[in-house]
What does this fold into?
Amino acid sequence: MLKQCFKSMISCVSLMLALMSCTNCYKMDGVVETLGYEGRELSLVEFLPQQITKFDSCRVVEGHFKMKGHIDSTRLVFLCKDGRPIIPLYMEKGHIRISLQPTEMTASGTRQNDLFYSFLKEKIAIDNHYEDLFQQSMRLSRRRIDPRKTELLQDSLRIIVDECENMICAFMAQNYSEPAAVGVFMMLSSSPSTSDDISPLLRRILDAAPDDFLSQSYVKGFVRRVGYERN
It folds into this structure.
């Protein structure tokens, strides 16, 4: 009887340890539908100002790849091919699904990846609309015909810029506490034009941000570099 009880206790403890070990596990399944990937190495790499860390790697076999392991915290990394970044994604617990297609590359299935890529999808749609109207405006301007239509297109472009900025600020307001918000801020602040200055959009984001967001290491570094002070 005592022996049976002891065995049950061991089984119970083993099950608890197994469950605990899976609480911070990530599993990644990827599908590749574009050329140039078969047999190539893909890796998960974190790029920090003073450190580059490679977490995991695998090879593409018959258009698929898989990775899995433990993660101590949610991290923004890049999926790299032969060491070169392809797409950003969040390493976090859960089942991450990656799709690499000729027209779209996405990561989904976990909270931060779903947030980040839903934002990117919406922003890309707005950017594409802007680009279409901009090209129309340039063609009309070069031909110097129908100035009224050119003026209307310019008004539409300004409206799209406002729409994009309002969408970005709304996303940030809803998700300041999420790691995905820091990733979006990194993307918005990484262009050369914002390397030593702060745009009205970034100032608007920072003015509305809670202290916890401002204390994030990347955000804190940016604030220090551009000399931002909250009004």
